[in-house]
What does this fold into?
Amino acid sequence: MRLVLIVVLTVLGIGADYRAEARQFYQLGGRAGNPWSGSGALSFIDVEKVPGAIRPFSAESSENLVASMGERNGDITSLVSIYTLPANWLDDRVLIVDGDSTTAFVHPPRINFFRGPGFFYTTPMFFDLGAPFPIEGIRFATRADHRGHKIRQFRLYVNDGREESKDEKGNLIWTLVRDEKDNLSPVVGLDIEPQIARHVYLHPLEVGETWEVAEFEVYGRGFVPQASFLSDPIDLGRASSLGRIWWSGQLDREAKIVIQSRSGSDDQPEIYWRKTGVGAEEVPLGTNGRPMSRQVYGAMPQNVQGRITQDLENWSVWHTYEYADGLAGAQILSPSPRQYVQLRLDFFSARLAGGQIDSLFFEFSQPPVVAEAIGEIYPPFVESADPVRFTYAVRTRLEAEQSGFNVLEVRTPARLEAVHAVRIDREGVNFTPSFDPAAPHQFAVQFDRIDQDQTLLEVDFAARVFSYGTTFSGAVSDADRDEVPQSVIPGDAMSELLSEALDVRTPLKGSLLSAAQVVPNPFSPNGDGVNDQVQFSYTLLRLTQVVPLETEIYTLAGNRVRTLGSGEGGSALYQTAWDGRDDEGELVAPGLYIYRVAVEAGSGREERLGPIAVVY
It folds into this structure.
């Protein structure tokens, strides 16, 4: 596979003396990237309709899917044998799909002598469209000058091609869409209920008359329901730090695209097993005693092929990104440094709604700033929303060619509040923090370079954690070089710490909604610039996903005055202001009002109520 790299600062080659001085980029698709069709396996993927991009196969209402099925490795088969082959069935040309309405497959009456008088043979026909399309119409006809050769009786079946639509022996389970008892038209045009179909089966019923089919046509509209691209393992040449991944494309609202990555240390993510013939025994070795490749496994007889499992010793599990994650760029979640990367793109369409990926990039650096960065956080268990002083410990392994690092960056869904101290091998050191309270989910600290193997780095900081299993992701980097930061992976950084994890847990039981703070109360929205607004502060706790959230103001009589917020929220600190006006923009009368904050979760509904005084 051709390796397309865009290199920043210098143009570099890959070879024995290769040494990177900058981050590099790998590209799939687009004008300059590796072509999708030569970089992996495509399942129901169209690489022709939009040059440089991939999208699921789709059908236009005017397109005969039978005519194009060969382009998708589809085919036509029938039960015609050498004894019943019509004389006008030409070599290398199947007349009913040749696009010529003046040629036809003609079927004369053929008596079934085994069953006796009145019984005839027939020729069922099976069409594989090459992909499961949303179809809505089927048409077949005689030649214009042989209108009397119509099919008087027939049954028409479809199958969507899924494994679930096969029986235990692997045979297709057919769904009947038309059972015609007396067709009088030489042109049969069937409008059927829109449905997914990959296979179509026409079964003419013999009535002792000659019948023919000049052309068989299937029409549909929309995308195949599922399609995927699986890249071959991408060889970066040597162990590399993995940085961001991003892509460009388009996605309809009702469709979905899921991108996944995994990283490994060899070029084979799977383990292939061979049946030995001794009971149910299987071994991951060929007859020569060596691990089998995909090619060797595929060449074995099917009855000898065993299972295929994931090599989790040399490869990571799949890590998932939503389509929106990569439009602005997302950190690759797969561990590094690793030499190999594999990508998977899955498209989920809803008939007329689909998606497309124009190009995909990811960045990496060689050699990595460190061979390995092991981290853990303490304390590993805290009360929800309480301010806590944490210690983030990182111990790194450096090899001879690696110059070390002088920056640690931490990202988390928790609310960060301050960075207190940095220690290197237990000694306090000077550091330069980078922290913006307006963006309280990340910070960075810079310190003197760490360039010795097994050096221990500790950073103390304050944060509030709102949900169980909140992760504090870390990365180390060299501020003096444009290289990809090396991700911190959980492990035993300090023997006296027992967490060996980078996530923090909170109690699973308790309220989802904290008490609200209301400041100032009372307030006077008279426009003098003093206490013109009241601010509500409250916290959502222990949520693993977003839930409906409402903030409203009521009179003492229970009449709603103002809706301050109605939407969705997750575990976090929320602040909402009220300017003393109702939903029509008019100032409310002085007096007492009631605020109401409500959250709707799977465990039930919780709300907080309290008084607010308005004075003038």
